Amino acid sequence: MTATWRATVLTLFPEMFPGPLGVSLAGKALASGLWALEARDIRDSATDRHRSVDDTPAGGGPGMVLRADVLAAAIDAAELASLAPKGRPRLLMSPRGRPLAQSAVMQLAAGPGPLIVCGRFEGIDQRVIEARGLEEVSIGDYVLSGGEIAAMALIDACVRLLPGVMGKPESGTDESFSDGLLEYPQYTRPQAFEGRQIPEILTSGDHARIAAWRQAEAEALTRQRRPDLWALKASQKPPKNTTKG
Ligand code: SAH
Fold first, then answer.
1. Ligand 1 in reach of 63 Cβ (< 6 A)
2. Residue nearest to ligand 1 atom 5, measured at CA
3. Could you give the dihedral angle defined by the CA atoms of residues 211, 215, 216 and 219, in that order, rounded to the nearest 10 degrees?
4. 100 CB less than 6 Å from ligand 1?
């Protein structure tokens, strides 16, 4: 049996966890041991009388910066204490990071689970990023007040892909981004809603035509809303007239 997928989060606010990760799909899976969560207080690694974790930025400017020595000690202590195997990914939630995408989520979900550092204030001392090899990950081009909500987004996206968490395994592969397309529109009962009908083809029972309709809708939506994804997909298409073998 493989070890449980485990997320270790370093934060100044461990009481924020599991938070939203404790309900619904992720919460049930957490309770039943399909994954594990360790939220550790960075402040436990402070060494001075005031348990201080931050200081003013070198060179001046507003706000405070998380200290390299305190954070490095917190990372080292977390790795010593964790049941996770050595050498797992070490991430730093950061607006400067590589934008999180489903492909990276799938890779993270397939591994042992990451150690995640959550920044606060103006961010963290550059030297600990280098010294501990932290990989910076962003959840979008906007600035949050801390890394915790970003870490939760990342963990949630991973957990729903873990074996046994979602009802049907294909729910993880047949959805937005998994094939480079946005998802086709979904419908459910009632048949008529404020005069709008479910597209007839979906109630036809003809699975081949339904699949073709969904593919066409997904392509049209992606072309319209995300020309960037569409261009990427087009550039990755294998040349015509070749057969797999
Ligand atoms: N001064 C920094 C922002 C600090 S925001 C800058 O301009 O880059 C405080 C913390 O919130 C960051 O250290 C990071 O951990 C988290 N954070 C903010 N926005 C984020 C985003 N888009 N993605 C991931 N983490 C983010």
1. no
2. 145
3. 170
4. no
The better pLDDT of the pair 242, 111 is held by 111
Do you know the residue count of the chain? 245
Mean pLDDT score, 224-239: 89
In the structure, what pLDDT confidence band is assigned to residue 22 with cuts at 50, 70 and 90? very high
Distances (CA, A) of 51 to 17, 41, 48, 78, 112: 22, 12, 5, 18, 32
- Taking the CA of residue 146 as reference, the ligand 1 atom at the shortest distance is 11
- The per-residue pLDDT for 245 is 42
Q: What's the 88 CA to ligand 1 centre distance in angstroms?
A: 22
